[in-house]
Amino acid sequence: MALDDLLRTDIAHKGDLVLTASGDLDTITGLANVKEALFRRMVTNPGALAHRPNYGVGIKNYQNAVNSISVQRELAGKIQEQFEQDPRVEGVKGVSIQYDQTNPSIVILTVRVKIVGYSEQEMSFTPFGEGV
């Protein structure tokens, strides 16, 4: 089994579905697919999926509220718990929350994660703005 098969292939989402030149739906594979899946898990509110009521971090509920250390710890714990439920993730090694120096309203989440078949990866997300 190839590593990309292990990490799966999904339909590409960039705010909307992406079409190829031939008009087919574009796909995403490998590490990029895992990162997209983890981002979707991060922005989905728990209870939003009827068939998976415990899926999601609900990061948007933390918008304008990640300044205190206790909220940051709570958020990091939820991210770790949710990401480790993905079978492609062996473990979350750390979560850091930073603010963009030029625009403090932009929050950058960096997650150190061990993906099956890869060394530890650093994945950065801007969940309150641009996304992945």
Walkthrough of the structure:
With 132 residues, the protein is of the alpha+beta class. It is built from three helices and five strands; from the N terminus they run αββααβββ. It has helices spanning 3-7, 30-43, 69-83, and strands spanning 9-11, 27-29, 89-99, 107-115, 120-125. The strands form two sheets. A three-stranded antiparallel sheet has the order 3-4-5, with helices on one face. Strands 1-2 form a two-stranded antiparallel ribbon. The radius of gyration is 15 Å and the shape is globular.
Write the layout of secondary structure elements.
Layout: H1 3-7, E1 9-11, E2 27-29, H2 30-43, H3 69-83, E3 89-99, E4 107-115, E5 120-125
Termini Cα gap? 28 Å
What is the radius of gyration computed over CA atoms, rounded to a whole number of angstroms? 15 Å
Mean pLDDT: 89
Q: What percent of residues are in strands?
A: 15-25%
Number of helical segments with 4 or more residues:
3
Poorly predicted runs are: none
Helix content: 25-40%
What would you call the shape?
Answer: globular
Strand order of the largest sheet: 3-4-5
Total strands: 5
Order of helices and strands: HEEHHEEE
